[in-house]
Amino acid sequence: MEDEGLSQSGNNKNGLENSPQINETISLEMVEVELALGAQDIVTQGFEETLRKAADLVGGKLIFNVRAEEDSDHQRIAAIAISDGSAEQTVYVLLANDGLTMTVTSDKSSFHRGLPQL
After folding, report:
1. What's the whole-model pTM score?
2. CA-CA distance, 81 to 60, in Å (whole number)?
């Protein structure tokens, strides 16, 4: 399902951004990850534990959780692998510099600048 023109401003109470990227295909699995993240308390659990619990809730696996480059709009970038039974998908979770706001995306080009060089 394409979400052209879909835009909501602001964050929900759990720090998830409510505005999907325009032209980004949103899968059911990606929505499940976003809901699972929203059910966590990042303040008390921290980002790593929030990711692990959300991945467990959707039957996924945390692939990585790395610090973004210093000049990035995000402080951490993580990936969760999820499957719908027939195909595997990678969902990226970006933690903003405020330490609370998370963005869920399947488009790695939206943050490629923030990944550290290996």
Report:
1. 0.74
2. 5
